[in-house]
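Input C-alpha cells:
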C-alpha cells in the first residue's frame, strides 16, 4: 500500500514540490480531507486512507495534516483536476460512512488573490474555502500546520512588547509630527494604504501622510514596474517630487513617516522585523518564486533594510526577504534590531 507521510514528512514533501512548481511554472494542487468527529472516527480514517491510496497516481503523495485531516499532494494538477479527484474519492466512500469535508488549494493560481472572489467559481458541495472578514482569499493559511511556518510565539510577544513601549515613549513625537502635518498641508494626518501581508492577505498600512491629498500614483506604478523589470536599484521618487509636503522627504528618508506602523504591529498585521509590505500593484509584477516573501509577517525593519536597502536591486531585496523567512530566529531578529539605527544613519547620508 502507498506510504502515508507523517505531518513533518508531508510538510517537507510539500516544500520540495512547491520549489519545483516555482522553477517549472507548473500548478500544484493540495486536497485536504477533514473527518468530522464521530464515534467510529478510526474506522472512517482507515477507510479513507485505503480509498486515497487506491486513487492516487504513483507520484502523488498522501500525508497527515493533523489527527483528523489527510492531505493529498497532486503535482502538475490544476484546480479542476483536483476537484474531480476529490469528488471521485467521495463517491467511493461507503454509504454508511460519514462523508469527509474537503478543501482544495491550487498553487500558484489561487495564491495571492488581491480582490474579492466569488466562491461559486471555486467550490461546490462538500467543498470548504477560506475567506477572511475582508473578503480576501488566502488559501495557504488553511494549511497552517503544513505550509508555510507559523508565526512563532516568541516573535509575537516581542512585537507586542516593543510596539507597546515604543508607542508610549514616542507619543510626544507623534503629536509633534501630527501638528506639523496639519499646519503645512490640509487633509488627514495619517495615510492608510492597502498592502500585502502574511500569506497574501491585504491590510491597511498606517503612515504619517507626507504627500498632498489626491496625489496621483501613476508615476509611482510606472517607476516600480521599471525597477522590477530591469532589476534596478530601489531608488525612490522623493527628490524634487512636487507631491511631497514640506519636510516630507526628510521624514521619509529617516523613517519618521513609518512610526504609525507600530499600531499595525500591535494588532498583529505586521511585525517589528520582516520584509517591507508591498503594494498590490507591485506584487503583480512578481515571479512565482518571489511570492515566498509572503511566508512571514511584513515588518518595519528587516534583513534587506539593514543590508543596503535602496542601494540594492529588486532581486537582492527579494532574496534577503526569502532568506529571512526561511532562517528566522530570535537571535537574527535581535541582530537586525541592533543594526537598524546605524542603517538609518547610513541611509540619511545618501
Amino acid at each position: 500500500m502507498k506510504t502515508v507521510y507523517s505531518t513533518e514528512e508531508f510538510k517537507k514533501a510539500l516544500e520540495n514540490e512547491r520549489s519545483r512548481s516555482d522553477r517549472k511554472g507548473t500548478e500544484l494542487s493540495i486536497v485536504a480531507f477533514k473527518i468530522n468527529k464521530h464515534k467510529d472516527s478510526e474506522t472512517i480514517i482507515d477507510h479513507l486512507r485505503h480509498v486515497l491510496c487506491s486513487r492516487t497516481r504513483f507520484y502523488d503523495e498522501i500525508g497527515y495534516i493533523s489527527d483528523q485531516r489527510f492531505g493529498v499532494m497532486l503535482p502538475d494538477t490544476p484546480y479542476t483536476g483536483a476537484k474531480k479527484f476529490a469528488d471521485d474519492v467521495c463517491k467511493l466512500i461507503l454509504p454508511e460512512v460519514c462523508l469527509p469535508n474537503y478543501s482544495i488549494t491550487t498553487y500558484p493560481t489561487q495564491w495571492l488573490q488581491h480582490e474579492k472572489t466569488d466562491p461559486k467559481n471555486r467550490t461546490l458541495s462538500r467543498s470548504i474555502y477560506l475567506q477572511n472578514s475582508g473578503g480576501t482569499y488566502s488559501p495557504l493559511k488553511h494549511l497552517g500546520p503544513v505550509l508555510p511556518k507559523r508565526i512563532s510565539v516568541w516573535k509575537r510577544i516581542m512585537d507586542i512588547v516593543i510596539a507597546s513601549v515604543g508607542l508610549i515613549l514616542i507619543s510626544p513625537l507623534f503629536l509633534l509630527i501630527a501638528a506639523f502635518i496639519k499646519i503645512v498641508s490640509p487633509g488627514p494626518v495619517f495615510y492608510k494604504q492597502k498592502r500585502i501581508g502574511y500569506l497574501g492577505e491585504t491590510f491597511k498600512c498606517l503612515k504619517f501622510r507626507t504627500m498632498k491629498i489626491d496625489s496621483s500614483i501613476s508615476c509611482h506604478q510606472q517607476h516600480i514596474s521599471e525597477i522590477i523589470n530591469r532589476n534596478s536599484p530601489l531608488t525612490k521618487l522623493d527628490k524634487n517630487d512636487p507631491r511631497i509636503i514640506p519636510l516630507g522627504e526628510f521624514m521619509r528618508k529617516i523613517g519618521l513617516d513609518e512610526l504609525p506602523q507600530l499600531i499595525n504591529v500591535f494588532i498583529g498585521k505586521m511585525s517589528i522585523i520582516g520584509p517591507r509590505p508591498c503594494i498590490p500593484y507591485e506584487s503583480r509584477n512578481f515571479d512565482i518564486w518571489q511570492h515566498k516573501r509572503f511566508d512571514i509577517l511584513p515588518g518595519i525593519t528587516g534583513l534587506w533594510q539593514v543590508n543596503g536597502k535602496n542601494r540594492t536591486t529588486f532581486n537582492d531585496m527579494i532574496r534577503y526577504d526569502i532568506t529571512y523567512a526561511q532562517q528566522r530566529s530570535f537571535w537574527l531578529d535581535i541582530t537586525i534590531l541592533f543594526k537598524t539605527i546605524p542603517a538609518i544613519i547610513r541611509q540619511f547620508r545618501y
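Residues 276 and 298 are 6 Å apart (CA to CA). The first helix runs from residue 7 to 24.
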